Amino acid sequence: MSEYSSISPPERFFKLPMRSLPRCTDGASLYQPCRTRDLVACHRRRRSDNQRSPPHTQIRTVSTHRQIESFVDLLRYFRGMLLDMDWLNYHHLLYFWTVAREGSIVRASEKLRLAQPTISGQIRKLEESLEVALFERVGRGLVLTDAGRLVYRYAEEIFTLGQEVIDAARGRRPGRPLRLVVGVTDVLPKLVAYRLIAPALRIPERVEIACVEGPPDRLLAELAIFGLDLVLSDTPISRQIRVRAYNHLLGQCGVSFFGTAKLVRKYQKGFPRSLDSAPMLLPSGSATMRLSLDRWFESLKIRPIVCGEFDDSALLKVFGQAGAGLFCAPSVIEKEVKHQYRVKLLGRTEAVKERFYAISVERKIKHPAVVAISEAAQEELFS
Q1: Is residue 1 part of a domain?
Q2: 294-322: buried (b, 16+ CB within 10 Å) or exposed (e) per residue?
Q3: What is the pLDDT confidence band of residue 49, given thresholds at 50, 70 and 90?
Q4: Higher pLDDT residue, 239 or 235?
Q5: Which residue, 266, 338, 267, 262, is CA-closest to 302?
Q6: Is the domain of 369 the same as that of 315?
Q7: Contact criterion met (CB below 8 Å) for 255 and 271
Q8: Looking at residue 327, which CATH number applies to its domain?
Q9: Which of 83, 99, 210, 255 has the most beta carbons within 10 angstroms of its beta carbon?
Q10: Residue 160 in contact with residue 154, Cβ under 8 Å?
Q11: Dihedral of CA 66/69/75/79: which sign?
């Protein structure tokens, strides 16, 4: 028996089929909305009537009493079960979703045509029901917490589906695309990222792609709360990072060196030994490629002149295009680099390897677009 069994339920919960149910002594049908206390009162009236009824009537009335008692127990059971369930207030969720989209309660109140205290109170009730904080105040603005970003993603799905229901009911064709949210680490060359992601656009389903760039730690945190479908990186996830995720090796390739026509003519003969004392533009010291290049230079006893270090690989190539020094890029995008930046190929080496990973929360990839990315990388790009 539920702890809520003593609480009278809302009348709308108990509109019940009528043919097999008895009628009250006052002639009222139990088919009408009723409360438990009404049934108990009816039962007591019948018990008092039984004391004055003939024996054959008492037998029939006792049977009716048992039906009523069973029925009352059934009502109490279902009432307790309903009150024990967790319910989500979708009005509260709508207010939260609107505030998150608009960026402030002021703009949300104008859109919803509600007072600001009303919206604040409803969001507070939603936080209490979910037992998490959805916003945190930064300065004068509101920023979603980790839990808030997770709830926002579900709210986005819910209200998008709701709009599709309206469109379908009104005869419009719902065209909801398959959404793919990709995190791209800031050290990954943009041309490589494009080559990796492009196959997702070729699958039969219509795909909507959202790309988020940032440092690996932040992207992996987003992945952990399902804010991203996968992360593209040139390094696997470390065991020291406490995120349950899996590395999927997409492929590996060598490294090619580029420069302006003038620099290539000067340093092409005797490559790679010619790189000794050559002007070089290199990735920053923390980049995986930089560590691999330093080891390679050390093994060949080559000491290039470092003219610049860059976190942004695209900016590095722009400086290389301007003739500030020689630079390198993964061999898999050799043609694209030569065409886009109008530079010449100096040489390439397989002694330095660039590896690329898709990191996901799934051991076995299931998302159709991610499957297309993985298969195309292994069968085409890095074959």
Answers
A1: no
A2: eebbeeeebebeebbebeebeebbeebbe
A3: low
A4: 235
A5: 267
A6: no
A7: no
A8: 3.40.190.10
A9: 99
A10: no
A11: negative
Q: Say if residue 205's pLDDT is above 70.
A: yes
Taking residue 198's Cβ as centre, other Cβ atoms within 10 Å add up to: 14
Mean pLDDT of the chain: 81
Q: Which pTM was predicted?
A: 0.61
Distance CA 111, CA 119 (A): 11
**Domain endpoint, select from 66, 84, 102:** 84
Q: Quote the CA–CA distance of 182 and 104 in Å, as a whole number.
A: 27
212 and 349 together in one domain: no
CA distance 205 to 175: 10
**Domain range holding 213?**
178-250+358-381
Q: Quick one: 237 and 372 in the same domain?
A: yes
Given the DSSP bridges, would you call strands 135-138 and 141-144 parallel, antiparallel or unpaired?
Answer: antiparallel
How confident is the model at residue 147, as a pLDDT? 87
Residue 6 counted as domain residue: no
Dist. CA 284–CA 232, nearest whole Å: 19
Partners of residue 251 on adjacent β-strands? 356
Q: Of the candidates 169, 190, 211, which is a domain's last residue? A: 169
Say if residue 118 is in the same domain as residue 64: no
Instruction: Give the HSE-up count for residue 20: Cα atoms under 13 Å, Cβ half-sphere.
Output: 6
How many Cβ atoms from other residues are within 10 Å of residue 92's Cβ? 20
Indicate whether 241 and 369 sit together in one domain. Answer: yes
Measured between its terminal Cα atoms, the distance across the chain in Å is 65
- Say if residue 218 is in the same domain as residue 365: yes
375: phi then psi, degrees, rounded to nearest 5: -65, -45
Phi, psi of 73 (to 5 degrees): -60, -40
Same domain assignment for residues 220 and 159: no
- Tally of structural domains, the chain: 4
